[in-house]
Amino acid sequence: MKTLSRLKSTFLKPGHLLALLLTLALVCTGLGQGRKRIDISSMIQPSAEAGVYFRTQGQFGGGVVPRGAAQFLNPQKEVIDAKQLDLVVLDQAKFRNRRPDYNAVGIRWKGNVYELGVPDDLIYPVMKFVQRDKYIVYTLPVAGFDKKFFADNALRPFRKVDRLGMGYVAREFVGTPYAALLEWADFAETIPMSRKLQQQILSDIKAGPGVFTGVSSYVNSDFHVRYKVFLEIEKGKRVVNVGGLPLRYFWTDSSTTAGVRVNKLEVFRYPSESLGPQDLAVMFFQTTAIMRQFSKSNKPEFNRFLNEVEGLVKK
To answer: Which of 161, 238, 272, 302 has its CA 20 to 30 A from that of 192?
Structure first.
């Protein structure tokens, strides 16, 4: 089974991944969107999709699977539908400068724009990945290599993780610094969840077909997470803050008859350092969920904004 301690012993060394991600954070302008602490139980929701995943692709797909939902709240903490919102490019020049800026994207509600502090060069690959509507964005195939699965999910070789083998990343992130971020996310720090919440989620997931007998692994995902996206005013500035954290689903393929069974869950540790690796990993999941919610609930706006961004980054 992949573990964080094993990862640290293999490649988390000075000058390697941590240095790359910290450099990514330092070269960005702006402070980025805020993470908000919310009660874990308030972000959990049922997920029919999780059952489908573990019944069909789970045995091949340990790694990073961003499938969260998003709920938008106005400054009065009232829920608002994504159909009431627009995505906004705040600075076209920043999209063209080929470096990450944190103050180039916003969400508009009733004529007011709230700054969404995410790196602008992350938006296009995330939206293209969401548009393709596949599950997995990064994996180390410790449970075996299935050619059809890798082809169907457009997974491309990224780099070897020493003794753990080759890591694969979705095609949208090839050649971007976010491939390294996704590698980090696969080994992000997690903490235990209450047994009650674990049982609530486990009861929602059915066993899938077994293939690799005796293998154990995990997948970092947010199948059961609904992030809360707060449109807020802080010190006179309209900003977007997001509450909610991804989960880690541990599974065992105990036999060819029992299939893939999720038997434990943990939750990502709340980031302690703004724009540190853990914060950036959480931000990736949150940003993907926001874009996925627009794709699901306000498709015309998702497509319009994707076309606008594509026109900027392709010039």
So the answer is: 161
C-alpha 122/C-alpha 286 separation (Å) is: 12
User: From the DSSP assignment, how many helices (H) and strands (E) are in the chain?
Assistant: 10, 16
CA-closest candidate to residue 286, choices 136, 100, 69, 107: 69
* Long-range contacts of the stretch 153-157 (C-beta < 8 A, 24+): 153/61
Q: What are phi and psi of 143, to 5 degrees?
A: -95, 5
**Cα–Cα dist 231/97, whole Å:** 27
> Buried (b) or exposed (e) across 235-272, using 16+ Cβ within 10 A?
eeebbbbbbbbbbbbbbbbbeeeebbbbeebbbbebbe
Return the amino acid letter for 42: S
Instruction: Give the contacts of 258 (CB within 8 A, at least 6 positions apart).
Output: 207, 210
Q: Percentage helix, strand, coil, to 5, in the chain? A: 35, 25, 35
* Residue-by-residue pLDDT tens, the chain, 315 positions: 343 333 433 444 433 455 555 545 544 444 555 789 999 999 999 998 998 888 888 777 689 999 999 999 999 999 999 999 999 999 999 999 988 999 999 999 999 999 999 999 999 999 999 999 999 999 998 766 788 889 999 999 999 988 788 999 999 999 999 999 999 999 999 999 999 999 999 988 865 444 434 567 899 999 999 999 999 999 999 999 999 999 999 987 655 545 577 889 999 999 998 889 999 999 999 999 999 999 999 999 999 999 999 999 987
Q: How many residues are listed for the chain in this entry? A: 315
Quote the crossing angle between the two packed helices 178-185 and 17-27, to the nearest 10°: 130
Of 296, 10, 253, 57, give the one whose Cα is nearest residue 155: 57
CA distance 259 to 254: 7
List the one residue out of 86, 88, 111, 116 whose CA is nearest residue 101.
116
Give the SS3 label for residue 29: strand
